[in-house]
Amino acid sequence: MSEEAAQPEGVALDDLAATRLLAARLARALKAGDVVGLAGDLGAGKTTFARAVIRALGNESDVPSPTFTLVQTYDTPAGTVWHFDLYRLEAPEEAFELALEDAFRDGITLIEWPERLGALLPRDRLEIRLAIVTGTERRRAHLVGHGAWAARLEALELAPVDA
Questions:
Q1: Beta partners for residue 10, in sequence order
Q2: In this predicted structure, what is the pLDDT of residue 3?
Q3: What is the CATH number of the domain that holds 21?
Q4: Surface-to-core class of residue 30, CB atoms within 10 Å of its CB (0-12 exposed, 13-18 middle, 19+ buried)
Q5: Listed range (21-25, 73-77, 147-151, 155-159) with the worst mean pLDDT
Q6: 137, β-bridge pairs
Q7: How far apart are CA 129 and CA 37, in angstroms?
Q8: Is residue 51 situated within a structural domain?
Q9: Is residue 10 part of a domain?
Q10: Total domain count for the chain?
């Protein structure tokens, strides 16, 4: 049984600025070997969140959704960021063709649609489930730390300060 820590109520993301703030706070804690899964329905803000993390890590280049390329890499002062979009993956093993093992070992890995990896997801990871608040433009982020991320998540102050 793996250790797990969660923020039960989640983090309210009232606007794009709140999303960027949460992403920037997370980015400060990321290092090579970290894996962050970004889950949620279409349009929930997974790519927006990934883009904000990459920019907060110091890469200001265009960050398109990797929906069709499946993976994009970005050089940052913190190391290489691997941004995967696995929506089109038909089987978890297909991810090996995308140099997934290299990303897990050497990079900071952001994975949209992480559930597509099934058992290939590493034990130590942070999962962020983004949800649209019904009838609004707002989002809610639920963070769950698995393995070593359980303690790291508890130690971090990632929630934006309520105004």
A1: none
A2: 67
A3: 3.40.50.300
A4: buried
A5: 155-159
A6: none
A7: 8
A8: yes
A9: yes
A10: 1
